[in-house]
Fold this sequence. Notes:
7 strands; alpha/beta
Amino acid sequence: xxxxxxxxxxxxxxxxxKNAKILLLGVGGVGSMxxxxxxxxxxxxxxxxxxxxxxxxxxxxxxxxxLHVGKSKVHSLKEHYPSITPLHVKVDKEWIDTFDFDxxxxxxxxxxxxxxxxxxxxxxxKKLISAVGSAKRLDPTKVEVSTIWxxxxxxxxxxxxxxxxxxxxxxxxVVVFSSEAAIVKEKGSFMGxxxxxxxxxxxxxxxxxxx
Length: 211
């Protein structure tokens, strides 16, 4: 059976997982691996949102990117995950203000735009799992899970936290981050870390659905 081993692990919770409705924002190095993990775990009702097209520079970390250079990420991924819903749109304040998030059980944030992350957190924190700071790092064992208020070793997470405080935001939500100090200034990336972020986000999503 296709998901027999997942069912052994999840037990009666598998039906809950299978019937979940997920919104995944960003399908780059983190998001594409999260999508793969969700899909293989039996979750097929997934809406993916991304405005980018594949470039050769994506091939060190983004799943299926080598097959679709120059094409829309979300529409290309639809070929590999037939049941998903692709939205080729930019995640910004205007889109966040008008989109209906109520239809989804969880919102998974794998985007890297600071302003969009802030608006998203303020609107969807109750069902949000967010990733920060996967670039510039080499050690996947440093990837951790906490809340936005307890990340450490990551300047991007600290910036998000600072900006949320300025806005008077005091709520909580789950964050996947790395405590490893950045080892380069440029946006270098390593699939061992970005992939770990994606798999960890998937794991947290499944745990949250089970609870």
